[in-house]
Amino acid sequence: MKWKLTIRYLISILSIVFIVSIVNTVILIALLLSQHNEDPEDIIHDTGENFTRAFYKNLSIEDGEPVVSEEGKDALTRFGAWLQILDENGNVISDEYAPESAATHYTPVELVHKYKYMDNDFNTYFIGEYEGYSYIVGVPESKQQRTIIMADPQQVFTYVSQFLGAIVIVDLIIAFIVGFLFSTVLTKPVSRIIERISELKERKFQPKKMKRPGVFKRVFANLNDVSETLQAHENERQKLEQMRNEWISNVSHDIKTPLASIRGYAELLRNDEISPEERLEYAGVIERQSLYMKELLDDFNLTMRLRNQDMSLNLQKTRVEGFVRKIIIDLLNDPQFQTHEIDFSSNAPELTWEIDQHLMKRALLNFILNALIHNDDDVKVTVEVTENGIIIRDNGRGIKKEEQAQIFDRYYRGTNTTSRGTGLGLAISRDIIQAHGGKVDMKSEVGKGTMFKIRIL
Question: Which reaction does it catalyse (predicted)?
Fold first, then answer.
């Protein structure tokens, strides 16, 4: 994978260099051709050559001789030039601003020499023609210099081709070296990123530190964060799976007991010799065991719906004090709990919550029953309504510190649990309160009891 990325990167770099070289060559040739085909009149107007060729417009023939117009004289002054007009024999017949050192006669060879080279006074000469006369424009200390180059076009083309070819080859070699060095630095982390993603796909979530991550430092940091998150989820999944298996094992055991009772007492009911009192007693046992199994299945169904957020709430504005008081009264009227001590107090008679009364009653009952069932018969349970929520505390056995983190986990049954149960009660209560946008806090100490504080935010 690493070499594939490196080769692809090198190919892209070399392709870019090659294309840029070709484009630059085409642009250079196009510019040269456009300059070659350009009309002299379109050349930059402040050049001496263009000035001289266009100066004939400032000349006229008067009395058989050429004369410079006033506009021409002004143009010479602005351009910083001087002028000499020659007849067909090379004699100077008139001039404008010519220096005293200027010649009064020019041979054809001298004209050629003047045109090609700058004289000792650093004058650059330009030659024009008008109506059979020749004129010389001299520019003292001109910034423009004329260079004469003699060349064979075919040889020039050969040299240019070789030069451009060498440039392309050298550019490609340099691009290859630089691209290779850079690609090794670039593709190594990319290759490692792909490997890390493959490891995550294979459920290998161990974070790893990358040496010299370069510009991908944050990418590797994010991958490590993802690894830690996935590892935490995996640990949670395994933990939940283990607890669920244990719960299934416990529930299977718990179901076998009532099923055995139901089956046994159902067989006894077939006996015609049992008395009516015994028949009622057996029927009562079957009913109680059936109700227990129904509660078990209801708990399982409810926790799954809460877990999947598939529970719609029938919210009603409820005064908390009266709602909690009624729950405790109903509980104390149950013959099973008539002998238990449950204290109720409230200092927030106006506290009102938007709640699903049926589900919230189920949640509060789970907390209270948990305190009553999983402690000794002389346990004291206190329920208090405050401005900040509901507090349920007991003075029972308490919960071991190492078990407190798991107390709200589904399927969990504490080691101090002596009665049978589904292990879903507190998890269901917590999920119901969270579904209302609330929160449950717990404090417990072995031998001193447990406290649950319920708040609706």
Answer: ATP + protein L-histidine = ADP + protein N-phospho-L-histidine
C-alpha distances in Å from residue 325, one per residue of 79, 175, 331, 344, 440: 111, 84, 10, 7, 20
Assess contact for 14 and 173: CB atoms under 8 A.
no
CA max distance for the chain: 165
If you count DSSP H runs as helices and E runs as strands, how many of each does the chain have, helices first? 11, 13
Site of tokens 């260099």: 17
At residue 43, the pLDDT reads 38
Confidence of residue 204 (pLDDT cuts 50, 70, 90): confident
Calculate the CA dihedral of residues 323, 329, 335, 338 and round it to 10 degrees. 130
pLDDT above 80: residue 44: no
Residue pair 48/144 in contact (Cβ under 8 Å)? The answer is yes
Three-state secondary-structure class, residue 137 = strand
Residues 6+ apart with CB under 8 A from 54: 41
Structure tokens given for 261: 């009772």
The C-alpha atoms of residue 115 and residue 91 are separated, in whole angstroms, by 17
pLDDT given for residue 40 in this prediction: 43
- Euclidean distance between CA atoms 93 and 54, whole angstroms: 21
Q: Are 423 and 247 in contact (CB under 8 A)?
A: yes
Phi and psi torsions of 38, nearest 5°:
-75, 140
Share of the chain above pLDDT 90, in %: 19
Do the Cβ atoms of 424 and 299 come closer than 8 Å?
A: yes
Enclosing H/E stretch for 424 = none
d(CA 228, CA 232) in angstroms, rounded, equals 6
378-384 LR contacts (CB < 8 Å, sep 24+): 378/341, 379/340, 379/341, 380/341, 380/343, 381/340, 381/341, 381/342, 381/343, 382/342, 382/343, 382/344, 382/345, 383/324, 383/328, 383/342, 383/343, 383/344, 383/345, 384/344, 384/345, 384/346, 384/347
Beta bridge partners of 127: 136
For residue 228, the SS3 value is: helix
* Tokens standing for residue 3: 């070499």
